[in-house]
Amino acid sequence: MLRDKSLQFAKNRVVFAFGGNLESSIGSVDDTIVSAIDTLVSLGSHVVARSRFYETPCFPAGAGPDYINLVAVVDTPHSPDDLLTQLHEVEVKFGRARQVRWAGRTLDIDILSYENRIFPDLDTYNHWKDLPVQAQMQNAPTGLILPHPRIQDRGFVLIPLCDVYPDWIHPVSGKTAQMLCDALPISETQGIKPL
After folding, report:
1. Residue 162's domain is classified under what CATH number?
2. For the chain, what is the domain count?
3. Cβ neighbours of residue 71 under 8 Å, at least 6 residues apart?
4. pLDDT tens-digit map of 91-141
5. pTM exceeds 0.90 for this model
6. No. of H helices and E strands in the chain?
7. I need a labelling partner for 187 at 20 to 30 A (CA). Which of 76, 86, 155, 170 fits?
8. Among 19, 16, 70, 69, which Cα is nearest to 40's?
9. How far apart are CA 1 and CA 184, in angstroms?
């Protein structure tokens, strides 16, 4: 577990969320996530810490098998845009098809935070953070938004994030991952369990 607050300012410190609910060509969702992490390491990133695997109820309810989620803290030499391109390539390698928003998937990798930057700017971040759920289901940003605009809303992200980096500070709200997790409504945390 990361406890040294100075670590949040380390060069190219990135927090990733991994998830999936469909088997890939290499096997189970957890095998796919481990292989995706190994691929990122082979491309020059270094895993500093990773959470346990968590099982998360599928959203929307009944839309498919439950998800497996994990959060990893990584040091990387790559820029945010290069890293996003790399992640999309890794997702495709493991069978990710981007046809329907929030559909079942073999692998999903999100950049939650990159050096605690706000990117591309605060107005763009706030637009996506404040987007109603129905609009979120139909629209996806065309570029990278940092921090991830849904971190504070998602138990399946905050619970594993607190496994490895409870002192991570949200660059907009100023709240730690643990504070954000503790503020979640029970509807966002129930059914999420470690594997």
Report:
1. 3.30.70.560
2. 1
3. 15, 16, 17, 18, 50, 51, 112, 157, 160, 161, 163, 164, 165
4. 999 987 755 555 678 999 999 999 999 999 999 999 999 988 777 767 778
5. no
6. 6, 6
7. 170
8. 16
9. 21
